[in-house]
């Protein structure tokens, strides 16, 4: 059994609508985690598994010249998706159509991304249509977002309506929008009770069912745990978008030694997800510490080598992630650029890579 969990508080709201979390992590000294046994070899894919070459958004998939007339056979099965998925991408800037196309092309062709996970909010009319076009043009799937913010208001209701109107009216929307997230961290921020959030998820699933767009909640472990586990929400979602920021663990030291923290949190979700697909969507390690991004361990190190080492760690554990339930765990890099969230970007403020980044998409 995993040793007793430590609860730590690392919550901060700062400029550009970002947040950091209360997290629950296993003690780094837990023998069960520090010496986790090697996983068994993965089973062969089932006979009905679709070849990645024939489905969207596989890396070698060729986009059609026009929008298909049905979704049958369009999406790659989630059971075939694991390892690096793409980037968390902040949209508070309300990027122009030109910039979205340029950066989505970069995500696809420079980094072999398959998805973008949206973060923050842009309330400009027609913005999500621009996102859809950029995703279609570059062969990327999208985890869209209903952004709650931090003010406790009901602006999210209008954002939900606007997003759903676009999803129903833009013919390309169901072909690039893999899922819609409620977030970010609505349970931790107590925007809604877990009972009400579960109802909202179920209502959204009913609304989007004709489009075959799935619904989830973008949340960390403690957001569920502070609500008694919120099993009703876990049962309601189609898949799980999980926040994984081990720098804030009380057991944190360097990124290269953070696997026990990551593994412990994943086990908490796996035990409760009932086989559903898991993604790490808000997932990374900061390259600098500053007010609002402060460690809870005196040994935690925030610098560029540790940001790099965290993603290297995930690559090293690709075989472990591959054999986890749901066909393996896919992960996003949070975030695309320091201009979107200071310290977390793969690119710095000047658009230069902070380190070589060529994550594995298969293993």
List keywords for this structure.
363 residues; single chain; glycoprotein; glucan endo-1,3-beta-D-glucosidase; disordered N terminus; two-stranded antiparallel ribbon
Query: Which structural class do you get from the secondary structure elements?
Result: alpha/beta
**First-to-last CA distance:** 28 Å
What is the CATH top level name? Alpha Beta
| Unreliable residue stretches | 1-52
CATH superfamily descriptor: Glycosidases
Architecture per CATH nomenclature, i.e. the level-2 architecture: Alpha-Beta Barrel
Radius of gyration of CA atoms, rounded to a whole number: 19 Å
What is the name of the CATH topology? Answer: TIM Barrel
What does the main sheet amount to? Answer: 8 strands, parallel, barrel
Tell me the series of helices and strands, N- to C-terminal: EEHEHEHEHHEHEHHEHEHHE
Number of strands: 10
The number of helical segments is 11
> What is the percentage of strand-forming residues?
15-25%
Shape: globular
Helix content class: 25-40%
Mean pLDDT: 88
Q: State the domain count.
A: 1
Strand order of the largest sheet: 3-4-5-6-7-8-9-10
Molecular structure report:
With 363 residues, this protein is of the alpha/beta class. It has one domain: Glycosidases (TIM Barrel, Alpha-Beta Barrel). The chain is 29% helix and 18% strand. An 8-stranded parallel β-barrel has the order 3-4-5-6-7-8-9-10, surrounded by 6 helices. The chain has a two-stranded antiparallel ribbon with strand order 1-2. Helix 2 links the parallel strand 3 and strand 4. The radius of gyration is 19 Å and the shape is globular. The N terminus is likely disordered.
